[in-house]
Design brief:
2 domains; alpha/beta; 332 residues; D-Maltodextrin-Binding Protein, domain 2; 16 helices
């Protein structure tokens, strides 16, 4: 009898150990540190992936930090302060040109147009781009994608940004809205929701979209160091799959639903304004429908950089772009 009881205890212990191991296996998550270049409604699909639990479904625990600026974001990535960076693809070209032995690889695209808008101090009826000639234009930081796209669009419309107007580009990114609100510039290049807030408050008027004018570019992309990708390919696949789920969700849902989901990330912004911004970005195709960064977008990026005199070298598409993971996920 004692032997039977002892055997039963052993079996029960083994069963409990098995259940415990299974539970631990189910609850064990892979932590990925993500650094975003700024906090923006422009990145709505990322926040949807977080709020809807798409990363969690993939067994991922995402630690998101905002690093405020391309230089800081890439420094954070390259120094292992982050596993993944959400930033403009141009930064990967800059890093490669400096001779990086462990380059940043673009593996999943989030936005595919410029995210800025031309805001005028006065309400300009029947706006033509030539109206900017002779004006004071408050632009973005030299070498950054917003400024390069801004100059590219102006040149497309026959405007020399350095001779046909007074171009101001020595104001820090975070201080540009305040500078315009304080009276600097006749026109300014702004991201949302600031552009819509200014319009609502009567500070300025949105009169054109740089995203519509410049075409598709890999404007904001998830990238990681080549070594991290090689060592953590499965985690990157799971991450990309979650992003793709969010991209599909945003495309399928009305702007109002996306706004409700991402509102916790913009507590100081009214829901109706978030909805307006999401709808504006969605209607002009700013949110990428899938994570694939294609060759034409890369070519357009380099053309914009070259036009601005900021392309350090002609870096090939296959050198810094990995589409295999995204293509595999989409075709699953």
């Amino acid at each position: 009898m004692k032997r039977i009881r002892f055997a039963a205890i052993i079996i029960l212990a083994l069963l409990l150990a098995g259940v415990s191991a299974a539970c631990n296996q189910q609850t064990t998550k892979t932590t990925l540190k993500v650094a975003e270049v700024t906090r923006s409604i422009f990145y709505a699909p990322q926040y949807v992936a977080l709020e809807k639990g798409f990363f969690e479904e993939e067994g991922l625990d995402i630690e998101l930090t905002t690093t405020w600026g391309g230089d800081k974001t890439m420094t954070t990535l390259l120094s292992d302060g982050a596993d993944i960076a959400l930033v403009g693809s141009e930064t990967s070209i800059y890093v490669h040109a400096r001779g990086a032995t462990d380059p940043a690889i673009n593996f999943a695209q989030l936005t595919q147009t410029d995210g800025t808008f031309l805001v005028a101090r006065e309400n300009v009826e029947n706006f033509e781009w030539e109206h900017l000639k002779g004006s004071t234009f408050l632009g973005q930081r030299k070498g950054g994608m917003p400024q390069m796209v801004g100059e590219f669009v102006l040149k497309q419309h026959g405007i020399d940004p350095h001779n046909d107007l007074e171009l101001i580009q020595n104001v820090d990114f975070a201080n540009i809205p305040n500078a315009f609100a304080s009276g600097t510039g006749d026109y300014v290049q702004l991201f949302e929701p600031t552009a819509s807030i200014f319009e609502k408050e009567g500070i300025g008027h949105i009169i054109a979209s740089f995203g519509e004018e410049s075409g598709h570019v890999p404007y904001t992309v998830f990238m990681t160091k080549e070594s991290f990708l090689e060592e953590n390919e499965e985690a990157i696949k799971k991450f990309t799959r979650a992003v793709y789920k969010a991209q599909q969700w945003v495309q399928d849902q009305p702007a109002s639903e996306t706004a409700k989901v991402i509102q916790p990330y913009f507590e100081d912004t009214e829901l109706d304004l978030i909805t307006t911004v999401v709808d504006r970005y969605k209607s002009q195709g700013s949110f990428a429908e899938n994570p694939i960064l294609d060759k034409e977008e890369w070519k357009n990026l380099k053309a914009i950089m070259d036009e601005a005199g900021e392309l350090p070298e002609d870096v090939g598409y296959d050198t810094l772009v990995n589409t295999e993971i995204a293509e595999t996920i989409i075709n699953d």
